[in-house]
Amino acid sequence: MEDFIGEVLAIFQALSDFVWEFPTNFAWYSELPIIGKLPLVILLLVGTGIYFSLSLRFVQIRYFRSGLKTLIHSRNAKKGISPLASFMLSTAMRVGPGNILGVTGAVSTGGPGALFWMWLSAFFGMATAFVESTLSQIYKNRQGDAYFGGMPTYGRKLLGGVSWIGAALSFLYILYAILCIPAQGFNAVSAMVSVSENVFGLSAGSDSILIWIFFAVLLIIATFSVFGGLARIIRITDVLVPFMAVIYVVAVLAMVLLNLDRLPWFFYAVVTEAFNPEPIFGGALGIALSQGIKRGLMSNEAGQGTLTMPAAVSDANHPCEQGALQAIGVFWTR
């Protein structure tokens, strides 16, 4: 069974590598200066963000204060869930292993300069998040006292109402979610092992019974949450996300204060290395740029479409209200 799973994942890994590398895996393209290091996916993501930013007159700036007001002055939802609850649900997806590993992965591969490109791509990604979340609100469907929708729903309606388009997009998201389970599960169990080793002094090898106990606990918690429906998931995220956010912010502020004397050097290194990367990290602007944007998508998910589903179930007063909140979510993760 393990060999079979490994073979299946290897196929998807090869497909993923091809998509993320195309067309840099062709010599005629890879020889182009700078742009030859940027896959088509990255060009589309950044290009879309720039297009929406310019066409909507930098909506991520103009609606930022409005989004904060919606976030602060929360209200109860008559149907579906509140905009704040939807924001909490999407934040639970953003802030976590993907956010932390995305940054470390970008720096280890592209150097400190990759952070600059992560920040820049996130700025334009705020406009993309605004648009995709607003579209989710405009084209959401109602079922009883709840809403549902997302990219499969508005993608189908915008592309002529063809049913197979919605089915194809839904299938891709289901496949994506299934393929995320091994990595996310590994990150969660690894974190629990790290806590047990550093806090309680318990060592756990790869074949330790402690690993299986952690796995069983996670499985029970996940089953309890998922099979309770969206309402139970919302109640859990409403409790966990603020707690998680406080720990996250306090940890970051503590690290900043403990290294306050190095802060000027940090920003200097990020900006200078963005345009003149060290050879140890690849020594090419395209590598820093590519890694920054690629890892930025991993951490803030702007343009990925996964956050359109939480945005659709919100009972917002206006579609742009939820769009502004999701734009703030991208800003928050950066």
Briefly, what is this?
By secondary structure, the protein is mostly helical. It contains 16 helices and two strands.
How are the SSEs placed, and which strands pair?
Blueprint: H1 2-21, H2 27-30, H3 40-55, H4 59-62, H5 64-72, H6 83-94, H7 97-110, H8 113-138, E1 141-143, E2 146-148, H9 151-158, H10 163-199, H11 209-226, H12 229-258, H13 263-275, H14 285-300, H15 308-312, H16 319-333
Antiparallel strand pairs: 1-2
Helix pairs in contact: 3-8, 5-16, 6-12, 6-16, 7-8, 7-14, 8-13, 8-14, 8-16, 9-10, 10-11
Q: What is the strand tally?
A: 2
Estimate the helix proportion, in percent. Answer: over 70%
Tell me, rounded to a whole number, the average pLDDT.
79
What value does the Rg take, in angstroms?
A: 21 Å
Molecular structure report:
- It is built from 16 helices and two strands.
- It has 334 residues and is mainly α.
- Helix 6 packs across helix 12.
- The longest helix has 37 residues, at 163-199.
